[in-house]
Design a protein that fits this description.
Strand content: 25-35%
Number of domains: 2
Shape: elongated
CATH architecture of the largest domain: Alpha-Beta Complex
Helix content: 25-40%
Largest sheet: 8 strands, mixed
CATH topology of the largest domain: Spore Coat Polysaccharide Biosynthesis Protein SpsA, Chain A
Radius of gyration: 25 Å
CATH class of the largest domain: Alpha Beta
Number of strands: 19
Bound molecules: magnesium ion
């Protein structure tokens, strides 16, 4: 049975259309990785956890479709399956919200919560309080008292006023509204430039109430904010585990070997049921080891014909997903390839980049090394390649 308290009467509009120009770099802040996962993925999850029956729509920039899909892939399927198709943002935040509200028109939800994608730490309590405030008042925004003295200044940089701090508030999101009220307010405000939805409601003549915001509900705007957010995520992931992986594949006649998702030209290939990517198999097993979650053979049995010739990145992506589903992150991967030939060094950074992409990690968290066995043993005789790996993962306790 559906329940209004679970958000059956509520829609969530996450505004992710910004280009993040204050942040620097070419990836907008809402798509930057935080604890190994896009900021937006964490924001979506926060709302899905607080209001499991709410409709969720994200307003994105049309250029960010691939980034949006990557963020959605980083949340559990039970949640991503609930997201409506994205609404495309407009030239301004206000236009993005308007498009998002229009996209919700057929959802028949009484309440809408409008939230900035770059605030991933909205708590369950804050989100539920926002919904209740909208039910009570029709329009409500979370606020905090300001502790700094605020000045107004003129164009010459001269102070022209000192407003009484007691009457000032800093505004956060989620801002909460009766859906019909805020939709008509946005229609009335078309062409004006207002910086938040509370102002849109005010301009339309509505009384906008305030409720207590949360100091932890920070907005990630600068690189320093992201660093602070990383510390906070890591502080919640104190169950640190290391897993190891080991794999061997034999050579057979061929023209290239797959190592870490890169085809390296050689006079032989590796024999195996899948693409025989010995390095990727060792890394995948290291992750399963850290999770104490079986091994590559138990998740992808070689007896199952569907894995014949499979690209091993399916296995690695799955292992990385298992970590995310436990609320954790991969902190570091270290792999070693043991062979006389081919020479791995020239491909090292391409392998690191490919592996990082598959696991959704920054490349700095992936190390790849290569060594020979001084012509000793099966690797020394060039009968095959061996690979070793460790995976360090961080989980919340009790996951
Ligand atoms: Mg193998």
């Amino acid at each position: 049975m559906t329940s209004p308290a679970n958000g059956a009467d509520t829609a969530v509009l996450i505004v992710a259309g910004g280009r993040g120009s204050r942040f620097g770099g070419d990836v907008p802040k809402q798509y930057r990785l935080l604890g190994g996962r896009p900021v937006l993925a964490r924001t979506i999850e926060a709302f899905a956890a607080a209001l499991p029956e709410a409709a969720i729509v994200v307003a994105i920039h049309p250029d960010d479709m691939a980034r949006y899909q990557a963020a959605l892939a980083a949340v559990p399927e039970a949640i991503s399956a609930r997201a409506l198709p994205p609404a495309f943002g407009g030239a301004t935040r206000q236009a993005s919200v308007r498009n998002g509200l229009d996209a919700l028109a057929h959802q028949s939800r009484k309440i809408v919560l409008i939230h900035d994608a770059a605030r991933p730490f909205a708590s369950v309590e804050l989100i539920r309080t926002a919904r209740l405030a909208a039910l009570d008042h029709g329009a409500a925004v979370p606020c905090q008292a300001v502790t700094d003295t605020i000045k107004t200044v003129d164009a010459a940089g001269v102070i022209v006023g000192t407003p009484d701090r007691a009457s000032l508030r800093a505004v956060q999101t989620p801002q909460a509204f009766a859906y019909d009220l805020i939709l008509s307010a946005h229609r009335a405000a078309e062409g004006q430039e207002l910086t938040d939805d509370g102002a849109v409601a005010e301009r339309a003549g509505h009384r906008v109430h305030v409720f207590d915001g949360d100091p932890a509900n920070m907005k990630i705007t600068t690189a320093a904010d992201l660093a602070a957010a990383e510390q906070r995520v890591a502080a919640a992931l104190q169950d640190v585990r290391v897993g190891q992986g080991y794999d061997v594949h034999a050579f057979e006649p061929g023209d290239s070997v797959w190592l870490g998702g890169i085809a390296i030209p050689h006079t032989k290939k590796l024999l195996g049921h899948s693409d025989a990517d010995v390095l990727m198999h060792a890394i995948t097993d290291a992750i399963f080891g850290a999770l104490a979650d079986g091994d590559i053979g138990s998740h992808f049995p070689p007896s199952d014909p569907q894995w014949k010739g499979a690209a091993s990145e399916i296995f690695l992506a799955y292992a990385a997903k298992r970590v995310r589903e436990r609320g954790g992150m991969i902190a570091h991967i270290d792999g070693t390839v043991i062979c006389e030939r081919p020479k791995v060094g020239p491909y090292r950074d391409a392998i690191r980049a490919k592996l990082a992409e598959i696991m959704g990690l920054p490349i700095e968290r992936v190390a790849i090394k290569a060594t020979t066995s001084e012509r000793l043993g099966f690797t020394g005789r060039e009968e095959g390649i061996a690979a070793l790996a460790t995976a360090t993962i961080r989980l919340p306790f009790g996951a």
